[in-house]
Amino acid sequence: MAVYPKSFFEKNEPIEGGLCFVIMSLSPESDSIYKMAIKPTVEALGIKCVRIDNIYAGQPIMTAILSTLKKAEFVILDI
C-alpha cells in the first residue's frame, strides 16, 4: 500500500491536545536518551510522550508515523 504524505495531510482531523510525538532513531543509544531524558521530561509537564515503537498499529509503519505526526500537538525530532 502506497502512502502519499501530501494527500494524507489534506484530510482535516483534530489535533490531540497534550500529545508529544518523538521521532528519532530506534538504536540502543537513542533508546536510553528517550527513556532517561526525553520521555520523563515531557511527562513531567503533563504531556503524553510517544515514539513509534510505543504505538501498536496494524497498519504500514509510514501510515502510523504520519497519522501520529498529524494528530500530535508537539513533535520532537532528532535528526
Produce the secondary structure layout.
Elements: H1 5-10, E1 16-23, H2 28-44, E2 48-51, H3 61-71, E3 72-77
Parallel strand pairs: 1-2, 1-3
How would you briefly describe this protein structure?
Helix content is 43%, strand content 23%. It contains three helices and three strands, in the order αβαβαβ.
What does this structure look like?
With 79 residues, this protein is α/β, with parallel strands linked by helices. It is built from three helices and three strands, in the order αβαβαβ. It has helices at 5-10, 28-44, 61-71, and strands at residues 16-23, 48-51, 72-77. Strands 2-1-3 form a three-stranded parallel sheet. α2 links the parallel β1 and β2. The longest helix has 17 residues, at 28-44. The chain is globular.
List keywords for this structure.
single chain, 79 residues, alpha/beta, three-stranded parallel sheet, 43% helix
- Binned, the helix content reads 40-55%
What spatial form do the alpha-carbon principal axes imply?
globular
Q: Tell me the major beta sheet.
A: 3 strands, parallel
- Distance between the amino and carboxyl termini: 26 Å
Low-confidence stretches: none
Along the chain, the helix and strand elements come as: HEHEHE
What is the SS-derived class?
Answer: alpha/beta
| Strand order, largest beta sheet | 2-1-3
Give the number of helices: 3
What's the total number of strands?
A: 3
Average pLDDT works out at: 87
Radius of gyration: 13 Å
Strand coverage percent? 15-25%
Oligomer: single chain
